[in-house]
Amino acid sequence: MHVPDGFIDAPVSLATGALAAAAVATALRGARRELDDRAAPLAGLVAAFVFAVQMLNFPVAAGTSGHLLGGALAAILVGPYTAVLCISVVLLMQGILFADGGLTALGVNITDMGVVTTLVAYGTFRALLVLLPRRRPSVTAASFVAALVSVPAAACAFTLLYALGGTTDVSLGKVFTAMAGVHVLIGVGEAAITALTVGAVLAVRPDLVHGARGLVRPLELRTSPGSPPAPEPVPARTPAPARRSARRVWAAGLVTALVCAGGVSYYASTSPDGLEKVAHDKGLDSRTEEHAAKGSPLADYQVKDVSDARISGGLAGVIGVGVTLAAGTGVFLVVRRRRAHAPTPAAEAPAAGSV
């Protein structure tokens, strides 16, 4: 659903750019509370993983494909504020290095794919956890539904932006019907990927899943039926194994991302994604502008001057994972450092409440 340059006019593009900048600024502040010792090491990996899986277009209908948006997955794993930053980093890398998603439309894409998907998904996720039994399977089920809902929500948000600043004269009803219809199908794929990923991390280290942290505490009640001091030894024994296990989770995630981007992406569907298909069928792309980064050595996810398409695409994917991981980790390290340097009372109060 990467919106190219020329789909949305300049005034609306500027307005969404300002909105996206405000959202990122808010996310930078909110992420300080989310990026604790558990989330901080994984946040950059989540951005790299989303980048890798977005390369895996899957068929959803005749001549149409879809790919992960990632807002729901990131929000559930590392928190909604950090998720906005993750998706923003991914979109920035894709736009600058791979000519995917317009540069003047960066605000549109961050607003649509980063902010809308994250807010809708995480709001749905938390609401479902209130209604569902407080068990780990509920987290996986809520992840599935939240991701499923977030994709058509993003499609509706694009339709609204098109209604405000579309550069072509196409019926709003036709755009809405086409976008909502195909993105409901894409949402099923998004939901499956999100639920599988969250479920996999949940099975190994539930404490690393931001959305499941409230469900981990009841496990301590079994070991301390009536005495308050009983849970105390558990935190004292866990730090060393937790760190080793977190490194294994990080390594497994990185290997998976590299395999997806460097190898599996070659077998991804070559059909246009939902937005591209609708744009072509309905004439939304009649004023598409040439991408400013079309001359990039990694444009269209191919390494320039490498003739073998399979090797070229694989190398581009691996480079993309590495660059996104480095950029995301750098951002989150800075945010984490600011949290560490925050005034002591403000910093220690949340930590004390979470133990």
Concise summary:
This protein has 14 helices and two strands.
Provide a descriptive summary of the structure in words.
The chain has 355 residues and is mostly helical. It has a single domain (10-215, 245-347), classed as Arp2/3 complex 21 kDa subunit ARPC3 (Orthogonal Bundle). It contains 14 helices and 2 strands. It has helices at 10-34, 40-54, 71-78, 80-97, 106-131, 136-165, 172-204, 213-216, 218-221, 233-237, 239-262, 274-282, 309-340, 344-354; strands at residues 58-61, 64-66. The chain has a two-stranded antiparallel sheet. Strand 1 and strand 2 (64-66) form a beta hairpin. Helix 3 crosses helix 4 (80-97), helix 3 packs parallel to helix 7 (172-204) and helix 6 (136-165) runs antiparallel to helix 7.
Strand fraction band? under 5%
The structural domain count equals 1
Give the strand order of the largest sheet, numbering strands 1, 2, ... along the chain. Answer: 1-2
Terminal-residue CA separation: 40 Å
CATH domain topology: Arp2/3 complex 21 kDa subunit ARPC3
Structural class: mainly alpha
Main sheet: strands, sense, barrel = 2 strands, antiparallel
Q: How many individual β-strands?
A: 2
CATH architecture: Orthogonal Bundle
List the helices and strands and how they pair.
Blueprint lengths: L9 H25 L5 H15 L3 E4 L2 E3 L4 H8 L1 H18 L8 H26 L4 H30 L6 H33 L8 H4 L1 H4 L11 H5 L1 H24 L11 H9 L26 H32 L3 H11 L1
Antiparallel strand pairs: 1-2
Helix pairs in contact: 1-4, 1-5, 1-13, 2-3, 2-4, 2-11, 2-13, 3-4, 3-5, 3-6, 3-7, 4-5, 4-13, 5-6, 6-7, 7-12, 11-13
